[in-house]
Amino acid sequence: MKYGELKNLTTGLLMNDNVLPKDDNVTKSLLGYAFSMISDKAEALHLLTLNKSQDINRLATGEYLLRNPELPENDDSELDIDHELCYAAARYIAAMISKEKTAIHQQYGDDIIIKYNGKVYQILESITKDEGDTNGWFYC
User: Fold this and answer.
1) How far apart (Å, rounded) are the C-alpha atoms in residues 19 and 49?
2) Structure pTM?
3) Rounded to whole angstroms, what are the CA distances from 74 to 2, 25, 27, 41, 116?
4) By the 8 A CB rule, do 76 and 55 touch?
5) Rounded CA separation 78/70 (Å)
6) Residue 128's pLDDT band (boundaries 50, 70, 90)?
7) Which residue, of 5, 11, 34, 84, is most buried by count of CB atoms within 10 Å of its CB?
């Protein structure tokens, strides 16, 4: 998803509520906060790395590290997270801006991450079974 699409989606989620800030730097700061929340909670496949010189958030599955996503430069920039997690980012931004539905947006964002993590764990479990690894860890 592109940054401009995320802003449009968030605008739609906030219909009849507060609106996105006019200052794009503020919106990017909110996105950075949403990215931080996502990288703390989600096993984002797009963010897995073995490169210790990247901006690392935490340890991930096996030997992998989970790097922090980079902020977009402009509306045409692809977001630096897995596609499904872009919807969680929109919900978290909406939660930060909303005056009426903060808890609802937060819950939807959390639900998206829970469902996403479930899919990731199924994939990793399938891979480890195929490779005969009994520890439940994913190694390449």
Assistant:
1) 36
2) 0.87
3) 9, 10, 12, 26, 26
4) no
5) 10
6) low
7) 34
- pLDDT per position as a tens digit, 19-75: 999 999 999 999 999 999 999 999 999 999 999 999 999 998 778 899 999 999 999
Structure tokens at 13: 């989620």
- How far apart CA 89 and CA 33 sit, in angstroms, is 9
Neighbours of 16 (CB within 10 A): 6
The encoded tokens of residue 103 equal 């808890």
Q: Which residues contact 126 (CB under 8 A, 6 or more apart)?
A: none
Q: How far apart are CA 47 and CA 101, in angstroms?
A: 29
Q: How many C-beta atoms lie closer than 10 Å to residue 133's C-beta?
A: 15
As given in the structure block, the two tokens for residue 1 are 């998803």
AA letter at 109? G
